[in-house]
Amino acid sequence: MVENLVEITRDQLLAEVQKCKYDGYRFITMTSIDNGDDTIDIVYHFDIDYKMKNLKITVKKDEEVPSISKVYFSALLVENEIKELFGVNITGIIIDYGGHMLLSEEELGSPMLRQQITIEKRGGNS
What we know:
Keywords: Ubiquinone
Helix content: 10-25%
CATH superfamily of the domain at 5-91: NADH:ubiquinone oxidoreductase Nqo5 subunit
GO molecular function: NADH dehydrogenase (ubiquinone) activity
CATH class of the domain at 5-91: Alpha Beta
Order of helices and strands: EHEEEEHE
Protein name: NADH dehydrogenase (Ubiquinone) 30 kDa subunit
Strand order of the largest sheet: 1-4-3-2
Radius of gyration: 17 Å
InterPro entries: NADH_quin_OxRdtase_su_C/D-like, NADH_UbQ_OxRdtase_30kDa_su, NiFe-hyd_3_EchD
Distance between the termini: 44 Å
Strand content: 25-35%
Number of strands: 6
Structural class: alpha/beta
Number of helices: 2
Pfam families: Complex1_30kDa
């Protein structure tokens, strides 16, 4: 369980992040969790005087998420990572690597997403 977790909507994200900046919080990182359905949780981690604040949004896998890199420049690295590894459509990243910061053209897209595997029973000897 994450302490000091505030669940917000995608539409509240930029205003809440701007408030963190105004209040003196520093941006630590973001984490992403594939919920196994059609949604992903993104948690934004902030700190002030060793006190954490965490903002969580839940978005559909095909939904756009605004970048916070205009507020916290350093967010561009983890935003590119989450965009690339989880396929989250983060828009407006100050420096967008277009899905190739970590992965090459030959590698699978969004390798951190849970894969839906269907196992078929085959006829024959069992």
